């Protein structure tokens, strides 16, 4: 190479760096996010993107039933077609790799891969084999969730998560999947957000199966956590080389006043959202304060259950979205008091990145058994529109940058965070809000199934390319 060529490639490189540093997404120099071993990926979930709900032997799930029930989902939307990913998976994975994502978090639809008798549905299993194979061929790390809420309806008909037997059926499902897909998976996650399955599904009825009773919620949670513990042992046995974890959605609260009652309300909010799941997993016991919030709602716990639930984890997945301001309800609980004048997303959720930092630091200090953490979901919904072939999602770009900075600050405080997955790769079926709320870094036109890369994804791709090019 001539001297001139060296100089001009140096100039080009420093221009690229300064351009990268001045764009509205790229992390500052010195940030832990520049380290190549900090994994950056995108996440999705089966029911939210796949569609093809009656194809190739897939059985109905509780979300097929729930979304077909009038009044349960905005505009009567269902996951019947969603992003048609079951048919477009190859081009979707090509899109993911063209955006330079290093990891992909997906979930398996239990009703697609197993029949009522517990036998494999070959066509369903093969779908995930092909998908994971293509990801591996492209050097993408695979993070696979076994349960992202699409419980087979035939199990719900026998009591769903209120029936202890469902935990054992889940372990059978984990056994089948790890025997079939072991070697294709870098990290298994047993459950996504058991809080949502238990509380929204059985406690207030906003999600499938739509039951509303606090005692149901606590019993469902116990069986979900038991299912996690049983499945983790099976995964360890069948697929020792992979990592095993679970994903918890965590909530940050603030007290509406300095009164002792409101401070207690804020504490109880975090007990209900975080400690309800994290204490059993990381301490082997339920938090006692939960029973002051919900007297007489203690679940039936059998001998040995807490030991099973408290099995060691290789990592903990954390999903974080927003903060909730609360005050005492005058009895033993809390009520929400929305803060005025704060930035909110299309979901109405407050944008509060400091909450992610503070929760991570708090977990690091309070749980000696805390394993390494991956942020398995973070992102926001906005009313994104395509104009001249582009989507300028400026609010999302700032959101992602600020939340990544919050993760960076937590790392600087000693928290072992290994990676971050943006929710979501694609706009998709946002549960009770149907297709109206758009979380993707790629826009989906549901009429044509046309994908349009949003500016957020372009900037992430640019950063990842720059990072990869640094020796
Ligand atoms: O879309 C959901 C996802 O399925 C679970 N975590 C929260 C996301 C946004 O609501």
Automatic annotation (TrEMBL):
Keywords: Carbohydrate metabolism, Cellulose degradation, Glycosidase, Hydrolase, Polysaccharide degradation
A single GO cellular-component term on record: cytosol
Keyword Hydrolase: yes
UniProt cross-references to InterPro entries, sorted A to Z: GH, Glyco_hydro_1, Glyco_hydro_1_AS, Glyco_hydro_1_beta-glucosidase
Originating species: Paraburkholderia rhizosphaerae
Catalytic activity, as annotated: Hydrolysis of terminal, non-reducing beta-D-glucosyl residues with release of beta-D-glucose
Record's protein name: Beta-glucosidase
Active site: residue positions: 193 (proton donor), 377 (nucleophile)
Biased composition regions of type Polar residues, renumbered to the chain: 1-11
Alphabetical list of SUPFAM superfamilies matching this protein: (Trans)glycosidases (SSF51445)
Family to which this protein belongs: Belongs to the glycosyl hydrolase 1 family.
Documented EC number(s): 3.2.1.21
Region described as Disordered: 1-22
Entry GO MF terms: beta-glucosidase activity
């Amino acid at each position: 190479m001539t001297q001139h060529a060296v100089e001009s490639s140096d100039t080009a490189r420093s221009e690229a760096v300064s351009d990268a540093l001045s764009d509205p997404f790229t992390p500052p120099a010195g940030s832990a996010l520049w380290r190549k071993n900090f994994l950056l990926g995108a996440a999705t979930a089966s029911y939210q993107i796949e569609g093809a709900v009656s194809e190739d032997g897939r059985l109905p799930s509780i979300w097929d039933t729930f979304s077909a029930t009038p009044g349960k989902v905005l505009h009567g939307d269902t996951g019947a077609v969603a992003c048609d990913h079951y048919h477009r998976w190859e081009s979707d994975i090509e899109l993911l790799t063209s955006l330079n994502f290093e990891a992909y978090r997906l979930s398996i639809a239990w009703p697609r891969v197993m029949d009522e008798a517990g036998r494999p549905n070959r066509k369903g299993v093969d779908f995930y084999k092909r998908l994971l194979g293509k990801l591996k061929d492209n050097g993408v790390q695979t993070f696979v969730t076994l349960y992202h809420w699409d419980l087979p309806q035939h199990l719900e008909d026998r009591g769903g998560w209120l029936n202890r037997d469902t935990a054992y059926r889940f372990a059978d499902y984990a056994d089948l999947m790890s025997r079939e897909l072991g070697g294709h998976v870098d990290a298994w996650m047993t459950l996504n957000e058991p809080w949502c399955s238990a509380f929204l599904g059985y406690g207030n009825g906003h999600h499938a199966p739509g039951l509303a009773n606090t005692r149901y919620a606590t019993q469902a949670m116990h069986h979900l956590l038991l299912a996690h513990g049983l499945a983790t042992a099976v995964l360890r046995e069948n697929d020792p080389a992979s990592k095993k974890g679970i994903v918890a959605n965590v909530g940050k609260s603030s007290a509406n006043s300095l009164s002792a009652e409101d401070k207690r309300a804020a504490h109880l909010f975090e007990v209900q959202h975080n400690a309800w799941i994290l204490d059993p997993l990381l301490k082997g016991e339920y938090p006692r304060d939960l029973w002051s919030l919900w007297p007489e709602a203690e679940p039936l716990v059998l001998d040995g259950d807490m030991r099973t639930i408290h099995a060691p984890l290789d990592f903990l997945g954390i999903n974080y979205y927003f903060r909730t301001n609360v005050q005492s309800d005058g009895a033993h609980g809390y009520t929400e008091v929305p803060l005025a004048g704060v930035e909110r997303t299309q979901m109405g959720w407050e944008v509060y990145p400091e909450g992610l930092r503070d929760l991570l630091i708090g977990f690091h200090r309070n749980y000696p058994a805390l394993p390494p953490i991956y942020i398995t979901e973070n992102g926001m919904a906005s009313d994104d529109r395509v104009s001249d072939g582009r989507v300028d999602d400026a609010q999302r770009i700032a959101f992602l940058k600020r939340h990544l900075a919050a993760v960076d600050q937590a790392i600087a405080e000693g928290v072992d965070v290994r990676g971050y997955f943006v929710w979501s790769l694609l706009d998709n079926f946002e549960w009770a809000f149907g297709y109206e709320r758009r979380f993707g870094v790629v826009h989906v036109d549901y009429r044509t199934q046309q994908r349009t890369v949003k500016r957020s994804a372009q900037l992430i791709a640019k950063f990842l390319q720059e990072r990869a090019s640094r020796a």
